[in-house]
Design goal:
By secondary structure, this protein is an alpha+beta fold. It has two domains: 16-83, no CATH class; 90-370, DD-peptidase/beta-lactamase superfamily (Beta-lactamase), CATH 3.40.710. Helices cover 40% and strands 16% of the residues. It contains twelve helices and 14 strands. The chain has helices at residues 16-30, 57-68, 90-100, 136-146, 153-164, 168-179, 184-197, 243-257, 262-266, 273-284, 342-360, 370-398; strands at 38-40, 45-47, 52-55, 80-83, 107-114, 120-123, 129-130, 204-205, 239-241, 301-308, 312-321, 324-333, 402-404, 411-413. Helix 5 (153-164) packs across helix 6. The longest helix is centred in the last third of the chain and has 29 residues, at 370-398. The N and C termini lie far apart (146 Å).
Length: 420
């Protein structure tokens, strides 16, 4: 006896959450997500990101569910989405710098600007910081602004001594030039007024270098930065700035040297591109305070001014690198200490400078450890000093002088004198 087929409706269900979980597990074995750019540990160099692909579970779910209920052709494919390599941007540099400060007991403050694009990063760059000798950059600029002609030999000497030898005495004499009278306090007031006109509201000099407050002058200025209730630094009340504002000032000088920017807009008849270039060239001659300089290759030009006191160390400059010009301003300060050793602060600042350089020059990074270079150049300076001393002694002997080293002292006696 034949039986007629009977149609029986399919009644089936599935657990969507469990299915999604299973698909996620499958995808975890197959996905190759895009990799972001990264800093290579131990070399301070950066690596580009890489593209990748991942399964789109939500988009794939409908076809997978339908396949469960089909009598045949029950295969389903996961939808794959290609991912571009994440962009190589300055946030990676900012994160690296922040990471470098993690092991430091004090506060790090850094500002970096790409002078080609204007893109910038700031790591605690808005905190009030002591002005130090870095504020002499503003003195250089204001000196050129007030001069109606190229600096004469006297002013050139002051500029050189201030930039190269970091002379506080010469810096105060430049304040006389700025004031137009022999009054350093008036020069400091005019300097501050000009800085505020440029929008640098957190930067000031109330008291000149190595001076005490005058009864008729302000001993400090109240600024947004130094009145921040969360202020974690202990800046000098006499002169202050921030990494951001000092970096902004350096960028203004750079753009001015190229015939554009804020300085020429605000002071069209008082500053020229040639004067801004002269200022940059002046600070290139500064071969001391080797913080930024030791973070970049020896043949790279750095126009900078360094400075430090008992608890704060810093450097601010323009780096003219093959991969692009950039501004970097960097400070470390330990407000809870009475003394910040350069054995602690200097290596941090040098590595920050190297990271910045390598960001802009990722195809040809600086692989030399800055501290190795510091040791090498220190040894070279000691050798040069010893050679100079030996040459001086040889010259003295050739001139007929006698050197008495008894008792550990040295007394040079000329030919017409008798030895004591």
């Amino acid at each position: 006896q034949s039986l007629d087929p009977v149609q029986i409706p399919l009644e089936a269900t599935h657990d969507r959450a469990l299915l999604q979980e299973r698909l996620q597990m499958i995808a975890s074995f197959l996905d190759n997500p895009a990799k972001g750019p990264q800093l290579l540990v131990g070399s301070a160099t950066f690596q580009y990101g890489e593209p990748g692909y991942v399964a789109d579970i939500d988009a794939s779910l409908g076809d997978v569910e339908a396949a469960l209920y089909r009598p045949d052709q029950r295969e389903a494919s996961l939808i794959i989405v290609d991912e571009d390599a994440p962009p190589f941007n300055m946030e990676l540099l900012a994160q690296n710098i922040a990471d470098q400060f993690e092991a430091f007991s004090g506060v790090g403050s850094v500002f970096v600007m790409d002078l080609a694009t204007g893109e910038e990063i700031s790591v605690n760059g808005d905190v009030a910081i002591s002005g130090l000798s870095i504020l002499k950059i503003a003195i250089f600029l204001e000196t050129y602004r007030v001069l109606d002609a190229p600096p004469n030999e006297y002013v050139q000497g002051l500029l050189y001594d201030t930039a190269v030898h970091s002379s506080n005495y010469a810096a105060n004499l430049l304040l006389h030039v700025i004031a137009g009278v022999d009054n350093t306090y008036e020069g400091a007031a005019k300097l501050t007024e000009s800085l505020h006109r440029l929008g640098l509201e957190n930067t000031f000099m109330a008291v000149p270098y190595d001076a005490t407050p005058a009864a008729s002058r302000p001993s400090t200025y109240i600024t947004p930065a130094n009145t921040d209730p969360d202020l974690v630094t202990r800046p000098d009340t006499a002169m202050q700035t921030t990494a951001e504002e000092m970096g902004t000032l350096l960028s203004m000088i750079y753009y001015c040297s190229q015939g554009k920017g804020t300085l020429l807009a605000i002071y069209p008849n008082e500053l020229t591109p040639d004067e801004c270039q002269a200022l940059i060239d002046l600070m290139v001659q500064n071969e001391e305070g080797n913080l930024i300089r030791f973070g970049v290759p020896a043949d790279v030009r750095v126009s900078h001014k360094h400075g430090w006191d008992y608890v704060t160390q810093g450097d601010a400059g323009i780096v003219f690198s093959p991969g692009g010009d950039f501004v970097i301003v960097e400070y470390v300060t330990d407000p809870n200490s009475d003394w910040l050793s350069n054995e602690i602060g200097f290596p941090i600042l040098r590595e920050v400078a190297r990271a910045a350089y390598n960001y802009f020059n990722f195809d040809n990074p600086n692989l030399e450890d800055p501290n190795v270079r510091a040791q090498r150049e220190a040894a070279a300076r000691e050798a040069a000093a010893a050679e100079a001393e030996a040459a001086a002694e040889a010259s003295a002997e050739a001139d007929g002088e006698v050197v008495d080293e008894s008792g550990g002292g040295e007394t040079a006696v000329s030919p017409d004198q008798s030895a004591p």
